[in-house]
Amino acid sequence: MQKTEVGTRASYKLYKQVSTNPIDIKTYLLIGKEYREFLLDKVLEGEEVTLPAKLGTLSIVGTQKKLRFSDKGVPLLPPNWQETKKLWESNEEARLTKKLVFCLNEETSGVSYKYYWSKNRVAIENKSVYSLRIVRKKKRAAHFAIKQGKEFYIKNR
User: Fold this and answer.
1) Which CATH number does 1-65+109-157 carry?
2) Which of 74-78, 81-85, 124-128, 129-133 has the highest mean pLDDT?
3) Alpha carbons within 13 A on the beta-carbon side of 137
4) Closest Cα partner for 101 from 85, 89, 114, 125?
5) C-alpha span between 123 and 2 (Å, rounded)
6) pLDDT in tens, 88-108
7) What is the secondary structure of 92-119 as a DSSP string?
8) What is the domain partition of the chain in residue ranges?
9) Over the range 60-79, which residues count as b (16 or more CB within 10 Å of their CB) and which as e?
């Protein structure tokens, strides 16, 4: 299956076809960007945002992860590359054996947060094929808010 990414620029072609008095593409893209910024700012404030045209809701959701280990005894967690690099610079043996430091999410008591697009009650076909990719700037903003003590909904497993 071929992966296809469709964004605001691609939607401009359809907009030009259906609009009787279309605006230029620069203005169209600016309006789209400002609207997305507005929605993501609301999500960062802790709100659950309902997307237009019955496309579901967007929010930040936390999940409490249980610490699991592989067969070799390695924790199944993402590496903390910043701390790993510090360890390798201070300890030559750790660098040679490629010892890793893992992210334990200690500042959030083991809760891992992510942007969540709920597609419940979305009335479109093949909704499982659609995805939402949040820009890194907004992911970093969420991380900073969480480090400052902002709390979001935590989903029970």
Assistant:
1) 4.10.520
2) 81-85
3) 4
4) 85
5) 24
6) 999 999 999 999 999 888 888
7) HHHHHTT---B---GGGTTEEEEEEEE-
8) 1-65+109-157, 66-104
9) bbbeeeeeeeeeeeeeebee
